Amino acid sequence: MSSYECSAVSITVCFHDGSAYLYTYESAGAAIIDQMKQLAYAGQGLNSFINRHARKLYERKLR
Question: By residue range, what is the domain housing residue 7?
């Protein structure tokens, strides 16, 4: 993961390969999104969490 952007109900995650994914409360559930935000703010563990729990729960691929 190279960067992220959070809103009240979503997180957009950009990866080193240039891909970007939008995860929302609707697509992944509030608990998962809130955990992803906490990990992003802490600066560690988000990539591993996505791989284990949210890999295909994105709303859409942005690029």
Answer: 3-61
Order of strands, edge to edge, in the sheet holding 10-14? 3-7, 10-14, 20-24, 60-61
Into how many domains does the chain fold? 1
What CA–CA distance (Å, rounded) separates 29 from 54? 10
CA dist., res. 35 & res. 38, Å (int): 5
Against a cut of 0.90, is the pTM above it? yes
Q: How many angstroms separate the CA atoms of 61 and 28, rounded?
A: 14
φ, ψ dihedrals at 56, nearest 5°: -110, 15
Other CB atoms within 10 A of residue 5 CB = 12
**What pLDDT, in 10s, does the model give residues 14-48?**
999 999 999 999 999 999 999 999 999 999 999 99
